[in-house]
Amino acid sequence: MNLVIFGPPGSGKGTQAKILQEKRGWPQLSTGDMLRSAIAAGTDLGRKCKSIMDKGELVPDDVVIGIISERYDQADCAGGAIFDGFPRTIPQARALDQMLKLRSKQIDLVIELKVDDKVLIDRVRTRIAQSGGVARADDTPETLQNRLAVYYQNTAPLLEYYKRQGKLVTVDGMAPIEEVTKAIAEVIANAGHKGCLGLG
Ligand code: AMP
C-alpha cells in the first residue's frame, strides 16, 4: 500500500511513519531525512539545500521529486511505501501521482494528523529543551513559525487535492502517541475492508 502521512511540522508524522514501518514493513520515505543525510554526507545536493532548510523554506520541487523517485525504485518499496513530508506542494503531488501511474501504482490513502498550532509550538519547545542544545537547525520557535506559514501556504492546499480524490482521512494528532497509532491502524483496516485499496 502507498500511504501519505500528512500534517504540519511537529504533528508526529515521522513518529507514526516509523511505527508503521516497523509494524507493517512499508518503508518510511522521509524527504526531510534524505535531505539531512545529504547534508551530513557533504554532497552537492546537501550543500545546495542546507541554507534553505535552516530557514524553514521548501527546497525546489524538482530536487525532492528526483530523490523520491530514485528511492521509490528500490526493491523494498515493491509492496508500497509511507510518504512522510512528501508531497508538500501541488506540483509535487501531481508528480507523485504521475510517477506511481507510470509504475501501475497509486496513492491508496492519505492520513492527516490534525494538531492545533499552539500544541505544535509547545512540542517544538519541549523537543529543544530535551535535546540539550543539539536540536535540528530548523527546530527553533522562530523557524517553526516560518515552517508553519510555509505549510499553510503551500502544503495545506493538498488536503483539498486528496479530498477530491476521495483519499483523505483525518486523525486527531493531539491524542497520546499510542492512541494516534491505534486510530491510524483502524483507518488502514477500514480502507482495506472497503476494498478501495491495493493492499500489498
Ligand atoms: P521535515 O523533516 O519533513 O520537517 O523537513 C525538513 C525540511 O526539509 C523542510 O523544512 C524543507 O526545507 C525540506 N523538505 C523536506 N521535504 C520537502 C519537500 N517535500 N519539499 C520541499 N522541501 C522539503
Describe the structure.
The protein has nine helices and five strands; from the N terminus they run βαβαααβαβαααβα. The protein has helices at residues 13-24, 31-40, 44-55, 61-72, 90-102, 117-131, 141-155, 157-164, 177-193, and strands at 2-6, 28-30, 81-84, 109-114, 168-172. The termini are close together. The protein binds adenosine monophosphate (AMP). Adenosine monophosphate (AMP) is lined by residues 9, 31-32, 35, 52-53, 56-59, 64, 85-88, 92, 138, 147. The site of adenosine monophosphate (AMP) has 18 residues, from helix 2 and helix 3.
Short description:
The chain is of the alpha/beta class.
User: Largest sheet, if any?
Assistant: 5 strands, parallel
**End-to-end distance, in Å?**
6 Å
Ligand names: adenosine monophosphate
Strand order, largest beta sheet? 2-3-1-4-5
Order of helices and strands: EHEHHHEHEHHHEH
Supply Rg: 16 Å
Oligomer: single chain
Helix content: 55-70%
Enumerate the spans where pLDDT stays under 50 for 5 or more consecutive residues. none
Shape, principal axes of CA atoms: globular
Count of alpha and pi helical runs: 9
* Structural class category: alpha/beta
Any key phrases for this structure?
200 residues; globular; 12% strand; 5-stranded parallel β-sheet; 57% helix; binds adenosine monophosphate; alpha/beta
Q: Secondary-structure map with pairings?
A:
Blueprint lengths: L1 E5 L6 H12 L3 E3 H10 L3 H12 L5 H12 L8 E4 L5 H13 L6 E6 L2 H15 L9 H15 L1 H8 L3 E5 L4 H17 L7
Parallel strand pairs: 1-3, 1-4, 2-3, 4-5
The structure holds adenosine monophosphate.
Adenosine monophosphate binds next to helix 2 and helix 3.
